[in-house]
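User: What would this chain look like folded?
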Amino acid sequence: MHKMCVMGVRTSWRIVADGEFFCPECGGDRNYLRQTGRRRLTLLGVPLISRGDAGPVLECSACQGHFGLDALDHPTTVRFSAMLRDAVHTVTLALLAAGGTSSRAVRDTAVATVRAAGFADCSEDQLLTLLAALAADTGRLTGTYDAVTGGGAPNGLDPCGTALAIELHESLEPLAPHLAPAGRESVLLQAARIALADGSYTPAEREVLTTVGTALMLRPADTNRLLAAARTPS
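Assistant: Here's the prediction, encoded as structure tokens.
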């Protein structure tokens, strides 16, 4: 025998925006509709009294699942790839600014690392030109690169000064929560290989790598372990 629902609550939804997000249920990039709703008490299916607002929620266009707005905190696959690519680029520039421009091996490794990260057309000239432009902006770098001689920072200067350290943090900290521990370690190890291309870490390079480890939310002990491991031939 079919039972009729006499009283209930019905939610009417209104679309207020749309976009693309990483759907937690689908496990991939999907379109979403951002919706707000209003709940109403119903009697025999007829809406009567307002019971307040509902949402806002994100409705996935594929699975129709509803998710909170915090789902937008997870970057889409495309955005994540761009964040990782830009982070590697920033770390590479920081290491070159620490004095790596004087070594052909370091420059070659830097270019190969940036290309592998997604900048397929990157060249040594492009990196050095960008580095010279950053060095000319005294508000960002503290004299760490001589655009004429290609030399690094003189002794006594802070190669990873406050402005550059901030730039590393701004590039790496938003990325770190979305990387597995192995992914964070991989970024640091890539940076270490650039620094070690000419044989050993300089104090300036070590300082940059320590800043990178901190920005990636690695414990100091783990950063030291990884930097030591990178020096050991596999």
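The chain has seven helices and four strands. If you want, I can go into more detail on any region.
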